[in-house]
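On clarity, I found the account of how folds are encoded harder to follow than it need be. For illustration, here is how one protein appears when written out as sequence plus C-alpha cells:

:::
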Amino acid sequence: MSDIMVIGIAGGTGSGKTTITRRLTERFGGDVSVIHHDNYYKAHHDLPYEERALLNYDHPDAFDTDLLIEDLRKLRAGETVYCPVYDYSIHDRTEKTQEIRPTKVIIVEGILIYENRELCDQMDIKIYVDTDADVRILRRILRDVKERGRSLESVINQYLSTVKPMHEQFVEPSKRRADVIVPEGGHNPVALEMVIQRVRAHLEKGEKK
C-alpha cells in the first residue's frame, strides 16, 4: 500500500521522542499507528532476573530488528501485525502481543532505528530528536524510578556502563541518516508544526484519490 507513510522518530534516551509521537497521535488519532522498537527486545526467558538485569539493552544486538522490518513490510502491504510486548520491570518480553493495524501513517519510535540501514529504507521521513545529555539523563532517572520501579543507583549504573557509551557509539552517529533534526524534541513547536503539516498534506492527498 503505497499510500502508507512511515515516519521514524529516533534520538537518545529521554530526548523527547515520546512527546513528539504523542502529539502526532493526539492530532491525527485513528490515522496513526505506533511501533516501539523497545517491544522488539529479544526474549531472555532462559535467564534469571539478576542476569537479565545486567544485559546491555542499548546495543543493536539487543533487538530483534529483523522481526520489526518484517512487520513493517506487512503493514505496508496492508496486513495487520501482532508485535511483541516488552516488560521493563522484569527485563523480558511477555507472552502478550499488541495488534497494530495498517493505518495511513505509521510511526516507528526508538533509540536505534537509524542504526540499521534496511530498517531506514522502510521509512519515508526520518526525524532525529536532539537533546542535551544532561537533560536526557535527568529525564531517564525520573522515568525509570517513577514508572519502571528502578532504584536510583541502578539507573545511574546502567547509564554510565551501557547507555552513555552505546549512545556515543551507535545512536549519535546514526543521526546522519535523519532527514530532519529537531532540537529539544517536543519543546520545539516550530519543528513540530512542520512535521504536523507534512503529515496533514499526506493525509489530504490520500483523501483526494
About this structure: The beta strands are 5-11, 32-36, 81-87, 92-100, 105-109, 125-130, 180-183.
